[in-house]
Amino acid sequence: MIKTFPDYLLFPAIIFILFCGIFSYSHLISVDLMEARNFITAREIIESDNWLVPTMNGELRIAKPPLPTWLTAIAMKLAGTDTNLVANRLPAGLAALLLLLFLYRFTRSYGGSPKTSVAVILVLSTSYMFMHMSRRGTWDVFCHAFMLGAIYTLYKATTGADKKQRYFIAAGIFMGLSFVSKGPVAFYALLLPFLLSEIISGDAKKYLQHWKMILVSVLISMSISVAWPAYLYLSFSEEFKAIALKEVAAWSDRHVKSLFWYLQFPVMSGVWMFFALPALWPPHSDKIIGERLPSRKIISWIIFTVVLLSLIPEKKDRYLLPLTIPLALLIGGYVSGLMDSVLRVGKSFVAKWIMTFYAFLSMVFLAVGIAAGVYYFFNYGFSIYLALIVSASIAMLVHFISMLRIGKTPDLVYVILAFALLTQASAPLTGKHMKPDNFMEILKLRNSARLSVCEFYTDNLDMKVIWALGKKMQTWDSALLKDLKDDHKIALLIKRGGDSVTSGIDSGQYLILPDEEFIFENWQLFLVSRLPVKARQGE
Questions:
Q1: pLDDT digits (tens, 9 = 90+) for 120-177
Q2: d(CA 501, CA 107)
Q3: Does residue 49 come out as left (phi exceeding 0), alpha (psi in the -120 to 50 range) or beta?
Q4: What is d(CA 148, CA 239) in angstroms, rounded to the nearest whole number?
Q5: DSSP conformation class of 479
Q6: Torsion over CA of 253, 256, 258 and 263, rounded to 10 degrees?
Q7: How far is CA 150 from CA 191, 225, 525, in A?
Q8: What's the alpha-carbon Rg for the chain, to the nearest Å?
Q9: How does residue 247 score in pLDDT terms, banded at 50, 70 and 90?
């Protein structure tokens, strides 16, 4: 027997789960290379006030479309700094929230009930890859959020909705916004697999019947998509061509993996992996999902996505983000089927043991969260928010035990809420045990008025270091010293152990001293200046 979550607590629980899945503790994740590039470009947009021609470390940056970077720059401007990771990542979180809104509306149009549609968005919001990418200030979540909006409005327009023209126009706008977020990526990885699943399911006719309005959508999309690239091509034609060729070449010669590498995709759903595996077996999922959602069509959508992604030699984990969308549809429909039909669960050995497994797994989540919270209190002090989380976890654990003792199985919201509470109870402790990235200590240099007038050099340009420093850096070359003015100093930042970089400096002409104010664990800062004229002349 299924124990239904109380209706009066359902909406607050959903809001809390979405907050945990998208926004909470986003500052704990270290800045990766792609984020650093985005943050530097956004910062330099603000500094130069040039929004059409972005730069990165002072050089033209047109390898990525601008919309996510513009939104990041706006967030930085509102926050008054580019070092606030919560603010920097807020646009990505809002895009993830928009994606969930579109997914809910699409699931309703796709045949899902309100209950099934809520299950779908809760599953996606707590899937590993979605949780990870919604906390990353990069381009991926933006392009797929807008493309899912295009899929929803396109599907709505072709399935008997009123005011079709508005939906077709909206579809064109969303496709254009997706393109200016990450080029054709979402067209290939999200829209094309969806359309192929529609065609193979015999629904091509409804799209052909509306070919004129679809053409309007395409024209609207193209007008939005080509505006910024056209401006750049006219202004920087040679650089534009070179970068375009470089990006295309990267698809085949960087991060090359096996053709079968993406078969790991069920793992990207995280805690839902054990629901995903049986749900992907059509005879079984047809029986469980029933009429709630078109399971065969969703499975074909998933298969087409895997195949199309696998055809591209360049492969990365985050490229599986669009796959999590139809996978969440499938898992959400599957779980709803398990919950809604107790008799069917009783007849299915697989379904029975999956539900039992997740009930006990939820109890483990709660117990681990309580233990993590108590450990934090004893070792790091009291926190009101953490105390509330631990109290809620204890109350839920007691409730779980009482449910299982009388033979009741907690429904989906209980399970997801247990996982959400675990993330909130464990994150503070995880933060205490995480060692900051070595480049984060460079943030201290930003506050030095003495160093603000110095040009910075390094032996190895690293975009994460440049973001942390907060200003442009140049690659070190001792030949540059010949242009150094007598009253100027330059700052040389190198990793510890890289003293050989300074050995090429002529000590008879230049003074090189380690900075005594800033002593880092992983870096060495040297100040280089010309010796006084008398000293150079040997007087």
A1: 999 999 999 999 999 999 999 999 999 999 999 999 999 876 778 999 999 999 999 9
A2: 59
A3: left
A4: 32
A5: G
A6: -130
A7: 8, 14, 51
A8: 27
A9: confident
Q: Are 457 and 474 in contact (CB under 8 A)?
A: yes
Alpha-carbon distance of 539 to 531, in angstroms, equals: 12
Q: Report whether 4 contacts 404 (CB < 8 A).
A: no
More confident residue, 178 or 243: 178
The SS3 call for residue 522 is coil
Whole-Å CA distances, 530 to 404, 515, 524 = 78, 16, 20
Burial class (CB in 10 A: 0-12, 13-18, 19+), 534: exposed
This model's pTM is above 0.70: yes
Report the half-sphere exposure of 333 (CA within 13 A, side-chain side).
31
Segment 385-402 shows an average pLDDT of 95
Judge whether 512 and 457 are in contact, CB under 8 Å. Answer: no
Helix (H) / strand (E) element for 455: namely: strand 455-458
How big is the CA angle at 132 (ends 124 and 142), to the nearest 5 degrees? 75
Whether the CA torsion 19, 21, 26, 31 is positive or negative: it is negative
